[in-house]
Design a protein that fits this description.
This protein is an all-alpha fold. It is built from 2 helices and no strands.
Amino acid sequence: MSAPNAGRQSPDPENQGSHQVGAPASADVGAAPSDTYAKDKSEEHKHEGLESNPTGPLDEAAERKTTKDGRGIV
């Protein structure tokens, strides 16, 4: 079967398999959530697990090194 135009083309409707014929799948399947849903979920999780002033990974080590009791201990 030669195509009038170069490139891949669909077969004629009478030669298509049953899974190719008919309307495409529903547009709602796999669609992104609505804007209101996304905003609501964002507000729910915005402050979850956040401290007002979280400590850094080296804060404890710096504190030990600069106190009198911890001087010289690494």
